[in-house]
Amino acid sequence: MVEGEEGYPQTTVKIEMFGAKDGGQPWDDGAHSTITQLLIYHNHWICSLQIEYDYNGQLISPSKHGGNEGSSSKVVLDYPNEYLISIYGYYGYIGKWGLAHNVIRSLTFQTNRKTYGPFGKEEGVKFSFPIMGAKIVGFHGRSGWYLDAIGLYIQPIPKIELKNFRLGPFGGKGGHPWEYVFRSIRRFVVDHEQWIHSIQFEYEDKNGKLLWSKKHGDTNGSSKSEVVLEFPDEYFVSVHGYYSHIRVLEDSATVIRSLTFKTNRRTYGPFGIEDGTRFSCPILGTDIVGVYGRSGLFLDAIGLYLGTTLNMKAEPEPVAPPAPQIQMEQSKLRQYGGEGGDGWEDMFQTIRRFVVRHGVWIDSIQIQYEDANGNLVWSNQHGGDGGSRSEVVLEFPDEYLVSIRGYYSDIRRWGLATTVIRSLTLETNKKSYGPFGVEDGSKFSFPTVGLKVVGIHGRSGLFLYAIGLHVASIQE
After folding, report:
1. Which CATH number fits domain 2-157: 3.40.50.720, 3.40.190.10, 2.30.42.10, 2.100.10.30?
2. Of 87, 175, 318, 357, which sits 20 to 30 A from 144 (CA to CA)?
3. What is the distance in angstroms between the CA of the first residue and the CA of the last residue of the chain?
């Protein structure tokens, strides 16, 4: 990244290219006032790109970068009110078409108002330019017969001039729409299991009053997690997740499967299952000033309003709904894995040691824990004696287990017709241990923000076939 290059305003930043670094010939349109339109020729890849710029009131259209093949699509921006804020896409090898070449396969353009694309085929290595709080004012790259690589010039947008804009919504079209606009978010409550059942959040309204939103979705998830920000020093920097189509009994819908919240201090989640189509909302340089979406039986869709809280006008105070009652003395979370072996369950105050035997799967686990009377007890070994032995010793009393994640799959290819736990990673309030085993198959996780593990249950025989948790609220 080069900042303040000669000939450009000192606020201009040049972003390095994604794609093939040695294909075609380099080109550079330079930096301008804004972008007015884009002409894209595309097929299974991006054949060419031509951009029209405004430079101090004069329209400029440099030469086309690439060839003339494929279908053409034109993106016309409503400038100066609409401007480009981000681009993402894919690049990869196109040898299967008889061409030994790496090129840009797909491009999607995000403005402060809407998303255009994707153009081309979303296949290969994904890339993105998450530059919220800035606008794109120029392009550079490499091209020959096709668009081989692409990079950007950006200029920060002063917060006082930054208009609020939407990201999303991501997900399905079921349920009913809802939206909130506010100064800040203080906490999130997420009800989840195989998907996001509901969300509810506490926010500061335009008058500075703390309110709770309604609950958006149902309440049938097996896990409830609460994210509490350390206001005002902690704030969101990105939100990402997954959505996909699900079928429950006779109902089917596209829903939010997973949510992860990243702040300037830590990452919360993932809540739910990371399966389906991934979406991302980078927030750098802006504030979350609103949340909107759709919900019914599930959380069907979610999006964000980004912008600035400066000069936000006060409004008449709404009637605040009651705060949610988050009372989880103890909760049993579902098992992930197979149906083989025999069931078992260990309950405790806290874990001191965790012993894992593992190879290409988890052969067994055994734990040393403090029971209800304060005695140190070793559990039975749950599984067989195969594989290598690893031991995790927690720094009692300051460190405790808060979650476990891993993978499970069928191991028929080893001549065994059974489903087992393939990998485990232990999450404490201080660090992660693992992964132990091989991360292959279906991913699972137990996101338990604000909770600690007080029990483990599962199934085992020759191997560890399944695992689940008991969790309880952390009492400060």
Report:
1. 2.100.10.30
2. 87
3. 45
